[in-house]
Design brief:
Length: about 350
């Protein structure tokens, strides 16, 4: 209720009180009505402010370089939400530290829901590789939903004389520590898939971290490194163009975009099976009401046939679960990857 309307009502009550009770003060019922009107007038701006979200541009922080799978998803979501809200939704790439530079930026942002994180396995499940972080992802970030999940593709430089995982393992063991694999940073899903392969195969390959997948991919195609365990959207075009060769995929089944590439299980490594996933998260102090609205709106746009096809064409499976389901999923994944970190004795100061 606007202030003018409230004072008009106040005047009406007063006049009616005089007319009906002559010179007496308003009745108790009239007084309660006045108090109720006052409460409504005070509460109205708050209700209007909540209902107005979003009323200014939203920023989606992608904590990796442009061109990677996280960036692809972030831009797809920015476009869809922008059309839904009638507001500008922009992507802000903040690469570095396995995604934690971007993660901390969102944790430190104003808790108003206008700074959103395109999170990853590295930010929510494998951050145990870092002994020291300037924030606590589990405490300082609030999960809105798991957006999508996908297997990874083991890709090699064309000059590497292997055609499958068995040959890769044999070559690595014959030439210890001479095969280097790149990643989007320590603790990123691209890194952890490589560490999982090392554990299940015993192959002595060496990890080389980058600030993002795009930089690592450039070096892979240039021959500076020999191997990557990368997300499908990033490497499928290069595999189809003959610039890289795919050795295996890490999911339960082959992917439609690369039907001739076997799974890790088919390749003789039954424990080499895992997916990476992305999330939408906000700072921990963002009100639940806003997080719930974002969850509902993201589920709406991802549920559209157009958006789902866009994800599936990139080798990704839409998830968009509830906030409770997302929290349970992430807790399970963190326990799984904590074991890999411990077994591989992985840590960064």
């Amino acid at each position: 209720m606007h202030n003018k309307a409230f004072f008009r009502m106040l005047g009406d009550f007063y006049i009616r009180g005089i007319a009906s009770q002559e010179t007496r003060m308003p009745t108790r019922r009239t007084a309660f009505a006045l108090l109720a009107a006052l409460a409504g007038a005070i509460a109205a701006p708050t209700a209007l402010a909540q209902a107005a979200y979003p009323n200014k541009p939203i920023k989606i922080v992608v904590p990796f370089t442009a061109g990677g799978s996280s960036d692809v998803q972030g831009r797809m979501l920015a476009d869809a939400l922008g059309r839904l809200y009638g507001q500008s939704v922009i992507v802000d790439n903040r690469p570095g530290a396995g995604g934690h530079i971007g993660g901390k930026a969102v944790a430190d942002a104003a808790p108003d829901g206008y700074t959103v994180l395109l999170g990853s396995i590295g930010l929510h499940a494998t951050y145990g590789v870092y002994k020291k972080l300037p924030y606590d992802p589990s405490r300082d970030l609030k999960i809105v939903t798991v957006l999508a999940e996908m297997p990874h593709v083991v890709v090699a430089h064309n000059a590497l004389p292997v055609a499958n995982l068995k040959e890769l393992t044999a070559l690595a063991k014959s030439e210890p520590d001479k095969i280097n694999f790149g990643s989007a940073g320590v603790g990123s899903s691209v890194h952890m898939m490589g560490e999982l392969y090392k554990l299940v195969s015993g192959a002595p390959i060496t990890h080389v971290p980058y600030k993002g997948s795009s930089a690592a991919l450039n070096d892979l195609m240039g021959g500076q490194i020999q191997l990557m365990f990368e997300n499908p959207p990033t490497v499928i075009p290069h595999v189809k163009a003959g610039k890289l060769k795919a050795l295996a995929v890490t999911g339960k089944q082959r992917i439609a975009a690369l039907p001739d590439v076997p799974t890790g299980v088919e390749s003789g490594y039954p424990e080499f099976q895992a997916t990476s996933w992305t999330t939408i998260a906000v700072g921990a102090k963002v009100p639940d009401a806003i997080a719930n609205q974002l969850n509902a709106d993201i589920r709406k746009v991802v549920g559209s046939p157009e958006f789902r096809k866009g994800l599936e064409d990139q080798g990704m499976t839409p998830v968009v679960n509830t906030r409770d389901a997302a929290a349970t999923f992430i807790a399970t994944e963190k326990a799984k990857w904590d074991k890999v970190i411990a077994q591989g004795k992985l840590n960064v100061d």
